[in-house]
Amino acid sequence: MPSSGVWTDPDYIVNAPELAAREVRKIKPPATIMVCSLCDPYQPIEARLGITRKTLEALFANMEPGVKVLILTKSDLVRADFDLLEEHRDKVELGMTVISLKANKYEPKASKPNNRLSVLREAHRRGIRTFISIEPWIPGITDPVEIMKATKKYVDWYILGRLNYHKVPRGFYKRHMPEVIDFVESEGIELFIKKELRREMER
Fold this sequence. Notes:
Strand order of the largest sheet: 1-2-3-4-5-6
Strand content: 15-25%
Helix content: 25-40%
């Protein structure tokens, strides 16, 4: 569902499942499909239309072994599809974007952080591999170590990324990354650091 200019007022593509079924047949393993990185796949309208669910069904039915789907959302509406994800748990991982354990002004339309974490706990109980995207890392709002400490028992891996397109105090990430790296290494946590943040560390 691409944005029409306002993230919470999406255009929807009614034939998305048919398009997904056709295009996924062209993908050769190993490969990963992200649903989705630019706009939330579980917008409120999904509760009425079910397009994301139908699209996932089309992907699972038509993709080759060795292709997997990563779902990334900020919405607890994904609960409605737990039966589907559990059925295909060898092909799918479920992630939530979490930039703070507390509600904040940057995510006014998203499900509350506690609700997102509850979704991940339940997914983990169902045998679905889980992840958290800690992105963007916003100074004064985001504490990656705090988030990992609170969730590491039911989250399999993490993504960490910087705040882009806005000014961040010079050297902020380089000063704070050692604490994150020390914690990750001490706990044996799987962490993917996005390339923009890696560049900050290398400067």
